[in-house]
Amino acid sequence: GFFHSSLSPTVELGATWPPAGISPFNPLQIPLLNTLILLTSGITVTWAHHGLMENNYTQALQGLFFTVLLGVYFTALQAYEYFESPFTIADSVYGSTFFMATGFHGLHVIIGTTFLLVCLMRHWMNHFSSIHHFGFEAAAWYWHFVDVVWLFLYISIYWWGS
Q1: How far apart are CA 15 and CA 34, in angstroms?
Q2: Mean pLDDT by 10 residues, the chain (162 residues)
Q3: Stated pTM of the model
Q4: Domain with residues 23-159, CATH architecture
Q5: What are the structural domain ranges in the chain?
Q6: Phi, psi at residue 34, to the nearest 5°?
Q7: Distance CA 104, CA 44 (A)
């Protein structure tokens, strides 16, 4: 839908992309900030992992805390963007694709933030060690995957799609 419509906009869409009447978000504002937030969170979760591997309790705790905080911040900015959106999910293929893709990704950010919050609580209770932290590693890999997916969404929907 999205790529077909953007590469070959039909007469029904006004033969333009985005469709006539759609005012897309500026990719250099909140979307770029969200990109920087997620990239930074990838650094903080890696910093937390290094802390775990080196038995540095404080570094791991701080890294997890900041990663969770950045995940919540990303979600808050995404919600703000939705509330301020000049278009709705019912406004053509652009609106439906935008809200479905970013909403599905946002759901995964919330899930990942929850995983990392559980890891933060487990680390707080000393459930992890340098050799026993699979739950954390699984959450960290999931978080990195969510980061990479966002980069594709940012490029295709916000940058190229505007």
Answers
A1: 30
A2: 58 68 90 98 99 98 99 99 94 89 98 99 97 97 98 94 76
A3: 0.90
A4: Up-down Bundle (1.20)
A5: 23-159
A6: -65, -35
A7: 23
